[in-house]
Amino acid sequence: MNRRSFLAIIHMGVGFWLLTPFHKIRSLYNRLKGPACPDTAEIKIASRIAEYIYPESDTPGAVSLGIENFLINQFRTPYYRHYIPSLRRITRYCNKRCMKDYSCTFLAADAEIQRQVVHTITASETVRQYPEILDDFNSLIDITLEGCFADPRHGGNREKRAWQILGGTINEEWFNA
C-alpha cells in the first residue's frame, strides 16, 4: 500500500466519524451488541409483579419459590434475551405510573399501590395507549409460571415446593435426560 492510498483510507475513516451523527453510531453499536441484562431494580420490579401473578396463599407464591433467582439466572441465557425489551417496557410503565399517580417509584410504593398499578396494566385505557403492553405482560406471566414450576437448577422452584403442590413426587429422571 502506498502513501496516497493510506492517506485516502484515513480521510475516509475520519470523514465517516465526522459526518455520521453520534446517536446513529451509538444506535448501530447497541443493535449489534444486543440487549444488556436487566439491572437489579428491573429484576426486583419483575419479581414483585410476579408475586401478584402467582400470589402466596395456602401454597407458596412466586417470591417464596425463588422467582428473583430464576430471573437473574435466565436473563443471562440466550433463550431469554428476547424477553428483555418486554421486561424493560413493563418496568418503565410501572415506574411512570407510580410517579404520575403517587409521586414515588414502584419499588418504594406500598403493596396496595403496587397491586393497583399491576391491575392497570390490563385495563383497556392502558392497552390503547401502549398497544404492546398486553403482549409484554403475557410474556411476564409465562416467565413467572415457568420460573415457579421449572427445574430447581435454573434458580426457581426453591426446594422443589412447586412440584410438591402438583402431587407430591416428580420423576426427576424426566428432567435429567
In short:
With 177 residues, this protein is an all-alpha fold. It folds into two domains: 1-33; 35-167, no CATH class.
Helix content: 55-70%
Instruction: Tell me the β content.
Output: under 5%
Count the DSSP helices. Answer: 9
> Mind describing the biggest β-sheet?
none
Termini Cα gap:
58 Å
- Overall geometry: elongated
Q: Domains counted in the coordinates: how many? A: 2
Alpha-beta content class: mainly alpha
Number of strands: 0
Mean pLDDT: 84
What string gives the helices and strands in order? HHHHHHHHH
**How many whole angstroms does the radius of gyration measure?**
22 Å
- Spans of at least 5 consecutive residues with low confidence: none
Explain this structure to me?
By secondary structure, the chain is mainly alpha-helical. The protein has two domains: 33 residues; 133 residues, no CATH class. It contains nine helices and no strands. The radius of gyration is 22 Å and the shape is elongated.
Strand and helix map with partners:
Blueprint: H1 3-19, H2 22-33, H3 40-53, H4 67-74, H5 84-102, H6 111-120, H7 124-129, H8 133-149, H9 161-166
Helix pairs in contact: 3-4, 5-6, 5-8
